[in-house]
Here is the input.
Amino acid sequence: MASSWPDAPAAVPRPGAESLSGEDLGQGWTERMIFDAVAAVVPGARAVLRRLVEVGGTASYEEVQDRFAVHPETPIDPKRIGGTLTSIRAVRRRVGPDNRSNLLERDDRRRPCWIEPPLLDGLKRAFDLAEARPDLLRQELADS
Here is the structure.
């Protein structure tokens, strides 16, 4: 059967997680592991990671807390920000490297939050893919 649209453009494949590198970016993390972590965390934790990438990888705990207390799309109660950050570590245990390296580092006494520089580029790539394919990300349940 002949197509009614003879000059139809070729279908462009949608990017997927298979396009990510399996090479070690640092501390055992690969682009695929980083994307899997971004995809698995709750949207609030994902927003915090994205913000840290936007500001170059480092922010104080208070800066994160203040930013998300009034965030227009992903508000996080200041009393819950610690749990949100801890959830990133919990996901890391499931999808990260076998060593004990964290995607997000925290110093609970001095209270900064940071991402090691080699992992920032992997996070940028993960967020680019997440923007192109939001269907690959964990979504909050509508009634939660």
About this structure: The chain has a mean pLDDT of 86. The longest strand covers residues 58-60.
